[in-house]
Amino acid sequence: MAEAEPRRRWAVWALLLLLHPAALVLANTEGDALHSLRTNLNDPNNVLQSWDPTLVNPCTWFHVTCNNDNSVIRVESFTLFTVILEMLHYQELWFRNLDSSKTCSTCENISGMTAHIRNILFIILITYMKIRELYSNNISGIIPSGFGNLTNLVSLDLYLNNFTGPIPDSLGKLLKLRFLRLNNNSLSGSIPKSLTAITALQVLDLSNNNLSGEVPSTGSFSLFTPISFANNPNLCGPGTTKPCPGAPPFSPPPYNPTPPVQSPGSSSSSTGAIAGGVAAGTALLFAVPAISFAYWQRRKPQEHFFEVPAEEDPEVHLGQLKRFSLRELQVATDGFCNKNILGRGGFGKVYKGRLADGSLVAVKRLKEERTPGGELQFQTEVEMISMAVHRNLLRLRGFCMTPTERLLVYPYMANGSVASRLRDRAPAEPPLDWQTRRRIALGSARGLSYLHDHCDPKIIHRDVKAANILLDEDFEAVVGDFGLAKLMDYKDTHVTTAVRGTIGHIAPEYLSTGKSSEKTDVFGYGITLLELITGQRAFDLACLANDDDVMLLDWVINYAISSVQIAT
Question: CB of 115 within 8 A of CB of 104?
Fold first, then answer.
């Protein structure tokens, strides 16, 4: 982290210097420089309204992150993306004139910009721009083809903007790209075949545009379902539900059984029938005891595992999510040994595991809840969960499915959950400081906002609590256990199913009606904030011994009322 901060700080200042060269001489504080940046940007939504030059410390401004020394180390996505878009208009400057032997035809337009600074800026941006969340910024125009030169990109999110025109063919050069989401724009034209060369691509969403033509079916595109291309009426091909003109309709090949050849001799037919009957009777004689024994064994609770192929829909593909075998996960967790249990919850147990490549994972073994068509439903829901990718959401790494087992595989979070850091930490571990708690609150809010506002269909968590907010190696909040409850379609206002959640975190209206919505999660988030502030459990029966409220919310309300009474 200490090494990363200087690089981030350099990135911020390099961007400032490019857009406002006068800052080289005039700006003597970070606040002045940031305000100068604001004056050079088009900000139709007043996102940067809080950048008030009368406030001495810019660390209080939105979209600005500082370190413990109150020095600016990061300007968040809106600002950086706007700057980058403006800089992409200078593609000759960026991509053609880095060689000092060539002249720069546009350099005179940017006073004070030396070739040295341009080269540093380019290197910084190539390094910095690995994951960029650029969605929902009301940005219009075409997608710059210069993005194709940012070959270190692993995620490009431009959805929920007003982009028009074609998808740049140059994006096919982003061979490290794993997530490409251009949905909910007004893009037109065909899908470039160059995108099929991106073999690392895991998540693709081009839905809700005006794209046309045939959807490529080779390369990584063979892995994606019609969800990736929905609501583009003029698209056709195997990746959609609409065949292209002149192509045969989508249907399985007809079954044409070969008629049996009648032998001329009836005696041989009779002999074959008798022999077949004897064989069938013998098989049945041995099968009845075997079936009875299997049924008796099935009724006994047991921990034996059998690798049986599950029902699998050939039309449901899961990108490049790894499908683990049950044997792999058995070996990784020492046969789901109790000593490897990381936690227990409403959806099942979580085990720590080590895969064959040495990487640590958390394996969630879901409780068995069989429903008709459960295998296909499970596949569909796993695909939806895998498409929710955000730095504050726990990434799904893979899954395992058999007729008797459902398992999800996630990255292992070495710092555990917020709940464990608040209440179950080892004596040698320091408590969470207030700055870290603030970051946790903001990060978990961003993760929940993504589930509610940027997933289609939206995902209602229904069990937001400190135990479901995990901490990565940098103590960044990562929301887990989302998508395990039934997904909510964006057209619905609630989901009517069994009430899921944890006592103390369940919203009263959800408990009484069984209808959940975003407000259900907001209530749980509010209780989580109280846990962060007080360090106490949301529900604690041990409080009865001291005649205290067992519900944290009730305790806080009563404390606030008594404080007001004392003050008056």
Answer: yes
Task: Tell me: is residue 364 an annotated ligand-binding position.
Answer: yes
- Return all residues near 387 (Cβ < 8 A) that are at least 6 apart: 203, 205, 227, 455
- The crossing angle, in degrees rounded to 10, of helices 434-453 and 518-534 is 170
Residues paired with residue 470 on neighbouring β-strands, in sequence order: 417, 478
Cβ-Cβ contacts under 8 Å for 537 (sequence gap 6 or more):
423, 504, 531, 552
Cα 432 from chain centroid (whole Å): 26
Beta bridge partners of 169: none
- Which of 155, 163, 160, 221 minimizes the C-alpha distance to 188? 163
Kindly tell me if the per-residue pLDDT of 428 is higher than 70.
Answer: yes
If you average pLDDT over every residue of the chain, what do you get?
69
Q: Which residues are catalytic?
A: 463
Helices (H), 454-551: 508-513, 518-534
- Superfamily of domain 322-411 in CATH is Phosphorylase Kinase; domain 1 (3.30.200.20)
* pTM metric for this prediction: 0.48
Q: What is the CATH superfamily name and number for domain 426-562? A: Transferase(Phosphotransferase) domain 1 (1.10.510.10)
Write down the H helix ranges in 67-174.
77-88, 91, 115-128
